[in-house]
């Protein structure tokens, strides 16, 4: 990576961690559930301020470190390690803040006098949000067009191809021309086009994240959230396929590496990233930022509040495990989307399968598609 890209990476990591508390649901500060009447507690304000200060200071230090490493001509791996260390430090700050909020919650007995409960909306089962298949059409069109061009171009390819890597291809690193090497971008497009709709379909059937303090309102907002999330995932698939089509054009010699090719590759991904940021700001986790997302404070004590289930969440709400919960997928406390319930046997079967696949690929028992293959001297 260049110094500019290192600094951009430091900035992105810092901004992402800085934004986590602001984007979180008010009743889930730092992954800890609190009742609506306690969302403005002084302890929460102190932790948010301290966390923000730590993240800002770490980001400034990280920028200085990558500049020094660049001046010392440190290897790219070392500079990348510095960025990774920054992310690990920011995650540690988040965990520390989460533990502090949990201690304040227990010390103040914040749930004293509240009526805890859960809510369900059967209409999300009888009339579920449908997969917006029409949004997937552009991704399929790009996939088929790229595959067709590849089939026509394949007989004319040279004996070696540039290896995949960096922002597209590595012109100075060559690999033998095989069907696997030539059609690697198309295979990646196909995998993306198949997996993303499957992810959407499973997500739409996952247990909804509703608020016992506002059953009807939270259910309506959650529907909007689900529709938007499905559209974003499938739209991002099309944009990802566009970037892979540019990679294919570079690989097949239909485009030359350079600023224009890099822009054509990066712009679709940047558009997808911007769309996700806008969605997170305007809709929020489980739709909590949509209109009507906060119950009036004078009604809080008259209603149920969402049940305190912190005992089933670990690592600041990053990991969930509850053997008594039949749900395989539960909505994450941090960010948008779902996570596995590690108390469910199927979750461990899925994880075991992934570990087995990684072991078999690492030991060479199976051959997964690689970004390149055996290299040849330029």
List keywords for this structure.
11 helices, disordered C terminus, mainly alpha, DUF5808, 2 domains, two-stranded parallel ribbon, two-stranded antiparallel sheet, 378 residues
Tally of individual domains: 2
Radius of gyration: 24 Å
The stretches of 5 or more residues where confidence is low (pLDDT under 50) are 293-302, 370-378
How many E strands? 8
Give the termini separation: 21 Å
Helix fraction, binned, reads: 55-70%
Description:
By secondary structure, the chain is mostly helical. The strands form four sheets. It has a two-stranded parallel ribbon with strand order 1-4. Strands 2-3 form a two-stranded antiparallel ribbon. Strands 5-6 form a two-stranded antiparallel ribbon. The C terminus is likely disordered. Strand 2 and strand 3 form a beta hairpin.
Short description:
By secondary structure, this protein is mainly alpha-helical. 57% of the residues lie in helices and 8% in strands.
Can you lay out the helices and strands and say which pair or pack?
Layout: H1 3-23, H2 42-71, H3 76-108, E1 115-117, H4 123-126, H5 133-153, E2 160-164, E3 169-176, H6 179-182, H7 184-204, H8 215-251, H9 259-282, H10 297-300, E4 304-306, E5 313-314, E6 319-320, E7 329-331, E8 338-340, H11 345-362
Parallel strand pairs: 1-4
Antiparallel strand pairs: 2-3, 5-6, 7-8
Helix pairs in contact: 1-2, 1-3, 2-3, 5-7, 5-8, 7-8, 8-9
């Amino acid at each position: 990576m260049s110094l500019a890209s290192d600094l951009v990476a430091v900035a992105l990591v810092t901004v992402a961690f800085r934004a986590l508390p602001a984007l979180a649901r008010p009743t889930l500060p730092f992954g800890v559930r609190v009742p609506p009447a306690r969302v403005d507690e002084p302890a929460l304000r102190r932790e948010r301020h301290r966390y923000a200060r730590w993240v800002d200071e770490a980001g400034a230090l990280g920028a200085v470190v990558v500049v020094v490493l660049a001046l010392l001509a440190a290897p790219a791996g070392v500079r990348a390690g510095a960025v990774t260390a920054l992310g690990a430090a920011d995650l540690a700050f988040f965990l520390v803040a989460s533990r502090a909020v949990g201690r304040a919650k227990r010390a103040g007995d914040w749930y004293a006098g509240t009526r805890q409960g859960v809510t369900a909306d059967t209409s999300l089962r009888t009339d579920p949000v449908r997969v917006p298949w029409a949004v997937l059409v552009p991704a399929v069109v790009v996939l088929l067009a790229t595959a067709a061009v590849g089939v026509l171009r394949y007989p004319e390819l040279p004996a070696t191809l540039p290896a995949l890597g960096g922002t597209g291809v590595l012109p100075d690193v060559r690999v033998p021309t095989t069907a696997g090497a030539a059609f690697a971008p198309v295979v990646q497009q196909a995998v993306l086009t198949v997996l993303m709709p499957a992810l959407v379909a499973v997500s739409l059937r996952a247990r909804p994240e509703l608020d016992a303090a506002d059953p009807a309102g939270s259910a309506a907002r959650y529907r909007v959230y689900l529709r938007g999330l499905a559209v974003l995932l499938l739209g991002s698939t099309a944009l990802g396929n566009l970037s892979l089509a540019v990679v294919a054009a570079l690989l097949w010699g239909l485009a030359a590496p350079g600023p224009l090719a890099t822009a054509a590759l990066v712009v679709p991904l940047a558009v997808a990233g911007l769309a996700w940021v806008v969605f997170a700001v305007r809709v929020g986790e489980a739709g909590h930022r949509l209109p009507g997302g906060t119950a009036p404070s004078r009604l809080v004590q008259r209603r149920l509040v969402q049940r305190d289930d912190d005992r089933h969440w670990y690592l600041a709400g990053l990991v969930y495990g509850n053997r008594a919960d039949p749900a395989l997928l539960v909505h994450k406390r941090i960010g948008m989307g779902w996570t596995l319930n590690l108390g469910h046997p199927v979750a461990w079967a899925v994880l075991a399968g992934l570990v087995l696949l990684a072991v078999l690929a690492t030991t060479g028992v199976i051959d997964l598609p690689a970004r390149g293959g055996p290299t040849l001297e330029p």
